[in-house]
Write a structure and sequence with these properties.
Distance between the termini: 37 Å
CATH topology: Growth Hormone, Chain: A
Number of helices: 13
Number of domains: 1
Strand content: under 5%
CATH superfamily: MFS general substrate transporter like domains
Radius of gyration: 20 Å
Number of strands: 0
Structural class: mainly alpha
Length: 398
């Protein structure tokens, strides 16, 4: 494709952001559908835990082994690979007839999200045409959190009110992926390939001079994504079992509110310094965890709902601040692999609640397991606040 056939920087920015948001949306579409698949295919909560876990595994493997690859080969090839793998994963969901097909679909969905995460985040920073360098980080985090929240809402609506509840949503999704793939072909490369021979060794990490900043960002984003994972796993069960509401759209709406409140907070406070965002976000995160636990134990919807809103603001600020301060601290040639390292910490936090609650619910019961996990996350969030409250040392060169 000739350079003259490529689209402008502003349009390219919009296409990259839409691609990122679409693929993260696809990562959470299955959440409201597990009950339908469980009834059709005959599996329970334990299998659901593994289906979720293999998605996180796919994301982590992609980030570890390919997260920095776009620093070598360019951003567009990784985006196209992510879109192609997402098409394959969606076909598994469309024709799912057994648990192995669901596992394959979730694994490849995770790989697609992992591939697009660092490449899109880096490309947004490189293609942004305006002078405000904070905007790409805001858009990246909004695309990530916005997509994660949109998936359960859209899937819940399709499953509750439209025919073919576990397949129609994937037919629509794969059509959107095909359309955005065509648009991506016209996006100019923001990081042309600079190496003759590609190194396939894992390229994840940050330059030595930025490691202290990375530590601050990682310890902040870990409990942030743990909160998001808690809501993704707890909210549908809380609404169904405690409130006796079986509407799949309502379950998706509750998760949607948490994520979209986070996106709104990022947009409102986008002009603030990253450290300011973290030091305001983490205390809200701590308060939210306390309210969520109390609401869960007392079956109190008001407390649970208040914790949802406060948690959304806290998560949005913490995530934005962590990514913003890391992006400022690393040089251009290390951008993708540094972002990959950040999202590895985030995705690890996302996996913790579901896997731990699933493992402990047998000996401790659901309430005991949930209480134990939230207690540990509270301690981690307090520790993250202490680490980030300390005056950071200036980042040197190298």
């Amino acid at each position: 494709m000739a350079p003259s056939d490529r689209i402008g920087r502003g349009t390219s920015f919009a296409v990259i952001a839409a691609t990122f948001a679409l693929l993260t949306t696809g990562g959470t579409i299955p959440i409201p559908l597990y009950t339908l698949w469980g009834a059709d295919l005959g599996f329970g909560a334990a299998t659901t835990t593994w289906i979720f876990a293999i998605y996180v595994l796919g994301t982590l493997l992609a980030l570890i082994f390919f997260g920095g690859l776009s620093d070598q080969v360019g951003r567009r090839p990784l985006a196209l690979a992510a879109l192609g793998i997402t098409v394959a994963s969606t076909l598994f969901f469309l024709f799912a007839a057994n648990v192995p097909m669901l596992l394959a679909g979730r694994f490849f969905s995770g790989v697609g999200v992992g591939l697009i995460t660092s490449a899109a985040t880096a490309a947004l920073a490189e293609v942004y045409p305006g002078p405000n360098k904070a905007i790409p980080a805001v858009v990246s985090t909004a695309a990530n959190m916005g997509g994660l929240g949109l998936g359960p809402l859209v899937a819940g609506f399709f499953a509750e009110y439209l025919p073919a509840p576990s397949t129609l949503i994937f037919a629509v999704f794969i059509t959107l992926v095909a359309a955005i793939t065509l648009l991506t072909l016209f996006v100019p490369e923001t990081n042309p390939r600079r190496v003759a021979k590609i190194s396939w060794a894992p390229r994840v990490g940050v330059p030595r001079a930025a490691r202290s900043i990375y530590l601050r960002s990682a310890v902040a984003v870990f409990p942030t994504f743990t909160l998001l994972g808690l809501f993704s796993s707890l909210t549908p069960r809380f609404i169904r079992e405690t409130l006796d509401v079986d509407n799949l759209l309502v379950a998706g709406l509750a998760t949607f509110i948490l994520f979209e409140v986070g996106v709104t907070a990022q947009l409102v406070f986008r002009g603030r310094e990253p450290r300011w965002s973290i030091l305001r976000g983490l205390p809200l995160l701590i308060l939210s965890l306390g309210l969520v636990l109390t609401g869960f134990l007392l079956a109190n919807l008001a407390l649970f709902g208040l914790g949802t809103v406060i948690g959304g603001v806290g998560a949005g600020l913490s995530f934005l601040g962590g990514l913003g301060q890391l992006s400022r601290a690393v040089p251009h040639e290390s951008h993708a692999k540094s972002v990959a390292a950040y999202f590895i910490a985030a995705q690890s936090g996302l996996a913790v609640p579901v896997l731990t609650i699933g493992a402990l619910s047998g000996p401790l019961g659901l309430t005991g397991a949930t209480t134990a996990v939230i207690g540990v996350v509270l301690v981690l969030a307090v520790a993250a606040l202490v680490v980030n409250a300390r005056t950071p040392r200036p980042v040197g060169n190298g």
